[in-house]
Amino acid sequence: xxGVYDGSELKARNDSYVVHKIVTFIYxxxxxxxxxxxxxxxxxxxxxxxxGKTIRVSEDKWKKIRIKLGEKEPTxxxxxxxxxxxxxxxxxxxxxxxxxxxxxxxxxxxxDVYNNHLKQIPKTIAEKEESDFVIRFTxxxxxxxxxxxxxxxxxxxxxxxxIPSGAPPKDYNxxxxxxxxxxxxxxxxxxxxxxxxxxxxxxxxxxTGVVYPGRIRFFPVKIEGxxxxxxxxxxxxxxxKKMIKFYYENKRKIHPFVLACLIHARFxxxxxxxxxxxxxxxxxxxxxxxxxxxxKIFVPVKLRPKYYEAIDLHNVKNVKEYCxxxxxxxxxxxxxxx
Length: 338
Description:
Layout lengths: L2 E7 L9 E11 L2 E12 L2 E13 L2 E10 L5 H20 L5 H20 L2 H22 L6 H8 L10 H19 L6 H12 L30 H15 L5 H15 L6 H15 L12 H12 L3 H19 L1
Antiparallel strand pairs: 1-2, 2-3, 3-4, 4-5
């Protein structure tokens, strides 16, 4: 549950005011601080209390959202319990073009359950779960792109530092690279930049036969088995710049899950590298979730058809259907691996 911090009382001077603010406070959601307040509103002989927040919906337009608290002045504990509802109302405003707000509440519930789980287990178990995730993420992300290693092979390479019998060198190196890439994004505290993309892709494609690992392509490419054609080389840097701008303009508005999905899809569409664009995009999606304090996710290779359907939807600008489909993929992943 979001926390309430250091509120300062702002008492109204005259009880004849129809609406007046009685308390303002700052709370934390998704690793960022925001301001909310409690309004006291008179309607005839009755007085009602509302939890409210004013949000920017465009450059010169603001919108007030409110949650009814009741006729009695609320305690801090009661306010804290209602903050989630206020956040849901905010989701409805900022995410209505992307996904149903109730689905975002499911993502948030999973986040709460996961964080509570981490608090209840010893550090040694948490480390094992983290290691298991890295193995599963690496296996599935690589397998989606045609890597022939099994989950057990990936475990042996990453955890036991063994080379499975018959493992192709390229597939083996992709497993090693997946682990290194995850360690990189986990430790990276910088900004979203083209240099970050280059470093991440360079790690994921090193020693795999790629001619220009981590280098923005200067040649046209086609995606095998897809009707979509990526942009021309001369368009790539500007498109990446626009994508980065979109991220920073919306990281406090759009839900982290939706933002991660949108950046992932944009990145894959731009296809800025010779190879490894899908793997880089899926790692990037997790970096965004981690920055916002959300659990990491992976796309199971079993769900590859549905995942590709989602990408195809975004390619033809059906953005809301894309986000809905990605939500289905994540929910199915949780069912498969809970």
